[in-house]
Amino acid sequence: QSSVPSLISEPDSVMLVPAGDHYTMMDFAIAYFREAQSMQGLNGISAEKKSAAALVQHTKVPIQESLLRYADSELNELATKNFRTLMQFMGDQSKLKNQNEAECIYEILQLCKEKESLHDEVYCQVIKQVTHNPNQESVLRGWLLLNLLTGYFLPSNILMPYATKFLQLASSDPSSTHHDIAKICQSNLRKNFMYGGRRRLPFPVEIEALLKGRGARRLVILMPGGMEYLTRVKTFTVAKELLQEICEQMGAGEQEEIQEFVLFAIRNKTVRPIRSEEYLHDYLLEDKLVTVTLRRLIWRTPLHFENRIYTDVHYGQMLWDYLNGKILLSRSKEMEMQVGILAMLQHWAKTEQQNSDPSREELKEYTPKTLQSSISPQALQSYVGMLLRSRQPFQPVDAKIQFIEHVMKLPFFGYNIYFVERVSDNTIPVPCFCGVNKEEIIVVDGTTQVCQTIP
């Protein structure tokens, strides 16, 4: 164990792949397989290596004992039972009555979930059955299972360098029919090492799709402003990868800015942020009732407007927040002026409205719902009309940028605002608003005065 290379160099590092000819599965078998231990020294080194090589190669008959030695007889029994299930799934043995392939996979993954001490055993069994297996269909199924194993469960620190080396050798052989899936397994293992693997076992429908060669699922991400982003997520796609993909399409490629966006999973009225290291399929349930949306949550890096999608996404998010009372305005004489300027910019942001005055109904749509009862429609129409007559209209994209820049100067911009109906502290007036950002929580009363700040 002391000769196993360190798997971590820096916090964000990937696993190290052992160099040279060491750490082959045959080396592992000689050191750790139950049968190899009993053969050592019997027939000389060359015969011993030949016998050890057979231990990590395909067999047509089920094993009678676990490959690795276990003191616990139950683990030994579970290991031999798992090997039979593996052979049934791969087609090396007949399936039981009413047993299908998806059930075989689920049974193997469930065993790994329940018995962490069997992870190495199951890895070794699958690697054994895909090595020098003459049946290509059987090999393909074995690699499909290895694809799932590497994404869900890590081998122990002892087996890790040997398993990593096995995948490296398999992926670097272009003549092999499975070098592509070996590369996927390498990627899965690396992600599993960094992010901890998927939490939920796959649903039957996901397993069936994988068996039919469909390793990706179509997903629509709802973007601010009513836009949709269509993508395909793979079995082990993490949120960080999808965020990077979307942000690059928007022209936001810097890591610092990407980290300011968050994906949310919404089901009925439950909203959950998906952390960047979480696997998307842990949220995408079988019933397809989960919606995934994108929002910018932090506003530290400067905005830039060279990309049209980027501008539309930011305008769409700010406009929705503003109209739904999520961006508070100070209740003063200035409030009506702010509402008027922002109404004018919304009007110009519509392509077809460049040269017309907004109707009273349109002005109502341009006003935050929380302020509609406290602003005079006649006064607002008069003020907006004066603004329109005294200014040269902007093109829609420029009007959107002006709207964004104007909103960013408002005193409560950058906070996520929540309406509060009840508070246990009597000193805080209710109803009130609670604002949260990276630095602090603020409590804002009905007249939009900050009455408490919590760092």
Automatic annotation (TrEMBL):
SMART domains: MyTH4
Name of the protein in question: Unconventional myosin-XV
Species classification: Eukaryota, Metazoa, Chordata, Craniata, Vertebrata
Gene Ontology molecular-function annotations: actin binding
Family of this protein: Belongs to the TRAFAC class myosin-kinesin ATPase superfamily. Myosin family.
The organism of origin for this protein: Pygoscelis adeliae
Domain FERM: 217-455
Domain MyTH4, first and last residues per copy: 58-211
GO cellular component: cytoplasm; cytoskeleton
Keywords attached to this entry: Actin-binding, Cytoplasm, Repeat
Keyword field contains Cytoplasm: yes
